[in-house]
Amino acid sequence: MLIKRNQSQMAFLALMLLCLIWGYNWVVMKNALHFSGPFDFAALRTVLGALCLFIVMLILKKPFSIKEIPSLIALGLLQTSGFTGLLLWALVEGGAGKTAVLAYTMPFWTMLLAWPLLGEKLRGWQWPAALFSLMGILFILDPLHLGTDVFSMLLAIVSGISWALAVILAKKLQARSPNLDLISLTAWQMLFGSIPIVVLAFMTHTTSIEWNTYFIGALIYNAVFGNAIAWLLWLYALRHLSAGIATMTTTVCPVIAVIASSIELHELIKPFEFLGMSLIGISLLIISYDRIKKNKEELVQPWLRKEAMIKSKSRKG
Fold first, then answer.
1. Contact indicator for 95, 140 with CB cutoff of 8 Å
2. pLDDT per position as a tens digit, 169-211
3. SS3 147
4. Rounded CA gap, 218 and 149, in Å?
5. What tens digit of pLDDT does each residue of 58-72 get?
6. The pTM of the whole model exceeds 0.85
7. Residue (of 130, 142, 123, 113) closest to 279 by Cα position
8. If residue 14 lies in a helix (H) or strand (E), which one and from where to where?
9. pLDDT in tens, 127-167
10. Residue 210 CB neighbours (<10 A)
């Protein structure tokens, strides 16, 4: 019992470290774009990130053989090309904190898109969560007073939608191939998804990259810590914590991004933006709570069915 409790505590600490890495990375990415174009940095980040994951696979002796290649290519286009490429483009003009919050609306878009694509209708607490997210997005966009960063905000929202579509595709893929290794899946989709970004980087490359200490450090941070180490922390956390609790904890990431960007980048948050961010935060917490509740029901229901069968047999006997 004590060992299990210690493992849970270590898993939670691993998850908090992961949130710090991912949350602060928004500031790192924003600063890195002072020294390169968005697609140049995105290409370097994704290619090096995939390479790091393949090294992790080699160390952990994971299988390199791949199945479902068309699905992995589609997943790469959505998760790596779509999400990563668009969010870095959004960071060119938009604030790191605001971009992070809008990109992290992914659970809201997943919930909405799962209705037509997976047949999972909105129910219970998901309705107020959807309403809070929608209101939050509108408050941040502030349609009555559109600023110069409206294009950036739209890119951040579309990046969240792309991430949500990738989640739905990944769910379908794992349903078809339940033994598909998570690190292998991530590494291959990142490699496939990096190809369009590399092409775009060559097509849009107009200024040379400034290879200074910060830029190199930002690449190392993204490839090693943001990808390889982060995925190991995530897998360790999932081994000892429920998926619902793990997902709920990651809602801290955009909060860290907002705090770090306001301190280091001196980004000012307007009252309407703060209200919108708060509403999205509430929505993410509701969605996470609903997911935890659903996971508990899925665990309890088989036990209840087993108990009912035992009672039925005892009555017949």
1. no
2. 988 888 888 888 888 888 999 999 999 999 999 998 888 999 9
3. coil
4. 24
5. 998 888 888 888 999
6. no
7. 130
8. helix 2-32
9. 888 888 888 888 887 766 556 678 898 999 999 999 989 98
10. 11
Q: At which residue do the structure tokens 């998850």 appear?
A: 15
pLDDT of residue 303: 46
Side chain identity, residue 118:
L
For 168, list phi and psi in degrees, rounded to 5. -65, -45
User: What are the residue ranges of helices labelled H in 205-270?
Assistant: 213-220, 230-240, 243-249, 252-264
* Per-position DSSP letters for 36-101, written without gaps between them: S-HHHHHHHHHHHHHHHHHHHHHHTT-------HHHHHHHHIIIIIIIIHHHHHHHHHS-HHHHHH
CA 57 to chain centre: 21
SS3 state of residue 162: helix
CA distance 125 to 305: 26
170: amino acid identity, one letter: A
pLDDT value at position 115?
85
Residue 113, H or E segment: helix 106-118
pLDDT for position 38? 93
